[in-house]
Amino acid sequence: MQMGDDATSFKLEVEGGTLDELPLHLLEAMMSDAAEALASLITESLANMRNFHSSKIVSDFLKQSLRSVVVLFSPERRPVAEFSEGKLMLCLNLQLAPTRCEICEGLRRGALAGEIERLRGELPRVIATVGQRLQMRLPTTTFVLDSASLLEGEDDEYVVSALSLLCYNCGALVLQPLMDGVSMGWDTRLGSVVRRHVRQLTLVLELFGGGNCVLYDSGNFVYNCPLFFLERGVYATSSCYLLSSQQIASLLLMQLSLVDPSIFGLVNTSKPLACWSQVHGVCTRILSAGCQRNAVRMTTRNIFNLRLGHAVSESSLTFIGCWRSIKVHEATGRVHFTAPTKAGYYEQQILMGGQPILKSPLRLRVRPLAVHLPSTKVLSNFNTVVVGRPFDIVLLLRDKYGNRIEAPEKIVVSPVTAGAARIMSWKRSRVDMIEVRVVVADVCDKCAVPIRLRAADEGDFELLFPVESVSEQTYHWVCLLRGGHTLDWEKRCRASKTKATKTLSMAGKASDRVKYFFRRTVRDAERRRLVRDAKLIGGLLNRVFPPRRPNDGKNGNSKKGKKVTRDEYPSRRRVCVVMGEESEAKGEEVSK
Fold first, then answer.
1. Of 555, 384, 394, which Cα lies nearest the Cα of 471?
2. CA distance 439 to 469
3. According to the record, where are the Filamin repeats (predicted)?
4. Cis peptide, bond prior to residue 374, ω within 30 of zero
5. Looking at residue 398, what DSSP letter applies?
6. Closest Cα partner for 531 from 578, 573, 498?
7. Are residues 339 and 221 in the same domain?
8. Among 265, 290, 307, which residue terminates a domain?
9. Residue 212 to residue 255: CA distance in whole angstroms
C-alpha cells in the first residue's frame, strides 16, 4: 500500500490467542473492505473541487497522515476500526471483523478530529498576526473572536470547514478583509473618525443568516459571518455570504454617517464602488445560443450605496466568462455581447476595478434554438440490412449549432418510396429523437434510404441513409463464419448425430503424439475452409447489421424449422482469431 510518495507500513499483532486461530477469510475480507473504504474517502484533486468541503479536507488529511495499518487479532475483543495519529487500527476476533462502513466511519472521524486539533492550534497564531496589523493601524481598537459558537454544539464537519476557512492563507478570506475594511483611510482624517467611534471589533461566526456588519452605541463593530454555505461550496464574495473589504468599509461608513455627517466630506462620493454596482436585464439569466443581440445595463453606486447612474468607464470593467464580442457604451452603461453557441450553464464574472460586482459571478443558462433539419444526426451505425426484415433508423434532432433541442416542435416524416426501400412507420420517442421503421425489398450492393423531414419553419429536408441489403441466406452465412464455423457446418452436424460409445483407455506417449498431429491437421484444414468461405461471402469484417427486434422471429422472416441466428452482432474479431489472417478475411466481395 502506498500513499503519495511514502509507503504505508503494515503490522499484524496477536493478543490472547495464536496465529493458528486467526480466521483468514475474515482477515482477507476486512483488508479488502479497508482498501475500498480508503479509496472512497481519498478522491482525486479536481479543478472545480471546493477547498473547504469536509470531504476534500478528509481526503487531503488521509493522504498526508496515514502511515501505518495495524491489524490486531484478539478472541476477547470486539471488532473495532479506529484512526489516530497516522495509524489505522483494525481489530477482529474469531467470529467478527469491522465492516466497510465501520472502517470508513473510523477513518473519517479520526481524520476530522486530527484536522480540528491542528486547526485549533493554528487559529491563535493567525489571530495574533492579524491583531498586530490592527494595533498598528487602530491602536485603541481590540479584536474579539466569538469562538464559542464555532467550537461548541456543532458537528465535526461544520467545525473543520469553518476553521479551515478562517485559517486559510493567514485569514485571507475572513479576517484580513475585516481588518482592511475597518482600517481604510487609517492614515487620514477618516481614520481618526473611525478610531473615535470604533473601540472593539467582534467576529461572530453563525451557521445561518446573511453577512452583515452592525455598529453599536458602545463602539462595538460586530461582523456576523455566515458559514452555512461551506458544505455547499459557496464562498464567493457576495452580500449574502462572505463580505469583501469594500463592503465592510461601506457598511461602517454608512452607519458612521448617521452619528457624524462630516464623513460625507472625507470620502469621494462620485466614485463607483464594485461591491454595490450590478447589471440588470433578462440576459443576466437566460441566453439564446449564438445570439448576437444580447445586452445588459450597468448600474453604478458609490460607497454609501447611493445610485450614481448608468455611465461607466470601459477601462475599469473586466469580463471573464462565456461572453464574446463585448462592446461597452460608456454613456448609457449598456453592454452588448454575443452568447456562446453551446447550450448549457455558464458563469460570467464581471470585475470593476479588479473587484467583483454585486451578484457576480452571474449564473447563465444558454438555451438551444429551434430545430434545424440539415443538422439532423443519424444515431444508427449499421451499414447492412436483411431483405424483408424491418429495421429502425434513429435520428437525433439538433439546432444549427448542434445542440439538443428542447421545444416540442411539430415535425412530420413524409412516406417516400424510392427503389427497394420503403418507410413503414415512424414515431417520436423523445423530443429530440425520431425512429423511422424501414424495410428493403430487393438485394442490392448500394441502397439509399430516403427520409423526408418536414417542419413548420424549416420546410422540407431529405436525408439519405446508405445501406447494403443481403438475403437471409447470406446473413445466416455471415453469422456462421463470425461464430467460427464453416458454411457446411450444419450439414456436418446433421451427419454426425449418430451416438458414439465413449471408452476409457490409457494412452501412451506415442498415441498422444498421434492425437496432437491429428488435431493440428484438422485445425489447419478448418482454417483453410474458413478463409475460402470468407472470400466467397466477402465483406465479413465490414458489415454491421441492425439490432434484432423482439418479434423478428415471429413475423415470418425465419422459416419454420430453421434455426434463428442468436447473435445479431456477431463478433468480427473472432473471425480474425480463428482464421489467423485478417487480410484474407477481407477478401474481395462477390455477388451473392
1. 384
2. 10
3. 340-366
4. no
5. B
6. 578
7. no
8. 265
9. 12
* Domain assignment of residue 133, yes or no: no
User: How far is CA 397 from its chain centroid?
Assistant: 25
Residue 349 sits in the same domain as residue 462: no
Nine cell digits for residue 218: 458602545
DSSP string, 229-262: TGGGT---B-TTSBPPHHHHHHHHHHHHHHH-GG
Can you tell me which residue has the cell 451473392? 592
pTM exceeding 0.85: no
The answer to whether position 500 is within a domain reads no
Distance CA 126, CA 176 (A): 10
| Distance in angstroms (rounded) separating the CA atoms of residues 299 and 297 | 7
In angstroms, rounded to a whole number, what is the distance separating the alpha carbons of residues 520 and 518?
A: 5
Which range of residues forms the domain containing residue 104?
2-114
d(C-alpha 203, C-alpha 180), whole Å: 14
Strand 286-288 and strand 362-367: the pairing is: parallel
Is residue 255 located within the same domain as residue 157?
yes
144: CB partners within 8 A, 6+ apart: 200, 201, 202, 203
Tell me, yes or no, whether 62 and 77 share the same domain: yes
Angle at 589 between CA 422 and CA 385, to 5 degrees: 25
Same domain, 144 and 244: yes
Counting the structural domains of the chain, the total is 5
Domain boundary among 212, 234, 265: 265
In a domain, 504, yes or no: no
User: Do residue 409 and residue 442 come from a single domain?
Assistant: yes
* Distance from C-alpha of 394 to C-alpha of 287, rounded to nearest angstrom: 30
One-letter amino acid for residue 181 of the chain: G
Q: Would you say residue 102 lies in a domain?
A: yes
Asked whether residue 151 falls in the same domain as residue 250, the answer is yes
For residues 461 and 393, membership in a common domain is answered with yes
Going residue by residue through the chain, which has 592 residues, state the pLDDT in tens, using 9 for 90 and above.
445 445 678 888 888 888 888 899 999 999 999 999 998 888 765 544 467 778 888 888 998 899 999 999 998 889 999 999 889 999 999 999 999 999 999 999 999 999 999 998 998 899 898 888 888 888 888 888 876 666 666 778 888 888 888 888 888 888 999 998 998 888 888 888 888 899 999 988 877 667 789 999 899 999 988 775 555 444 444 434 688 888 999 999 999 998 888 888 888 888 888 888 999 988 888 999 999 989 999 999 999 989 987 788 888 899 999 999 999 998 888 999 999 999 999 999 999 988 888 888 888 999 999 888 898 899 888 888 888 888 899 999 999 999 998 888 888 888 776 677 888 888 888 888 999 898 888 888 888 888 888 887 777 888 888 888 888 888 877 777 776 666 665 556 655 554 444 444 444 445 566 666 667 776 667 667 666 666 666 666 677 888 876 665 444 444 444 444 444 434 443 344 333 333 333 333 333 3
Query: Looking at residue 416, which CATH number applies to its domain?
Result: 2.60.40.10
